[in-house]
Amino acid sequence: MFDLLPSRSRHILVCGHRGHVVDGHENTRPAFRHAAGLGASLCEIDLRLTRDERLVVFHDDILDDASTGAGLISQLDYGQIAQFRTKARNGMPIEGQPIELFENVLAFCHDLGLGLIVEIKDKVEDAAYLEQVVALLRAAGMFERVLISSFDYVVLRDIKRLAPGIRTMGINYHRLVEPAASARSATMDVMNTDYPQFAPDLAESLHGAGIGVSHFVPRPEFFALRRGYGTDYLEKLDVYLRAGLIDMLVCDDVGWAVDFVVNSGLTVARLDPITSPGPAV
Length: 281
What we know:
With 281 residues, the chain is an alpha/beta fold. It is 33% helix and 18% strand. It is built from ten helices and ten strands. β5 (146-150), α5 and β6 form a beta-alpha-beta unit. The longest helix has 13 residues, at 127-139. The protein starts with 10 loop residues before the first strand and ends in a 13-residue tail after the last strand. Residues 12-261 form the GP-PDE domain.
């Protein structure tokens, strides 16, 4: 089970958002393999449930924008979805990849030695959804190498009731009045705050309650453009990292994130090697 408060020892987790996606891939084996090669500690993936109740790794509720298919995932069986391939949102010419079942991605990332943040995207209507998630994690030997994440804090509370010992991360877009209280209400272990809502007092509140601090930042070109207008958030981010306010940095560009962390005087946290074999991919 990996440390969710590595800032205490001048370490930080680096997470590839949907893998390393700046080459056009997301939620696919090339994205995860590239992220691991660049030094990621974890990758974030997204879950959707098909009509025949199979969990697939895909961000959107529809296939239209990031695959060769069309339609709502919830209205299609996996056999139909498996005929399609992924495509880059920005039109970049890449080789399309399969839309994978969750259990196959778990096995693949197990063999890569990656941890995962598993974001539940669907509105969860009953316990069967969460029971399937937990069962697949256990079967893959990944239960202790995963954070379950969601914008829905009720889901985080419920999955922890279902599977004590599972660790969770709430996703936050807001400047919260009582960050630690919000985190405790959902029994979360980590809270992620997206740029630009992150602030030192938020991190201090969470750390004071023993809760890990994750921060999502956009791609480096986002900041480069704004630097030309005289504002540089990355200067602040460097200060935050050096002050030990952040335990995990999440970004689309894993190589850039690793370099930024190292240049800020921190060490990227590596997960312990997996000793138990995973299922065949």
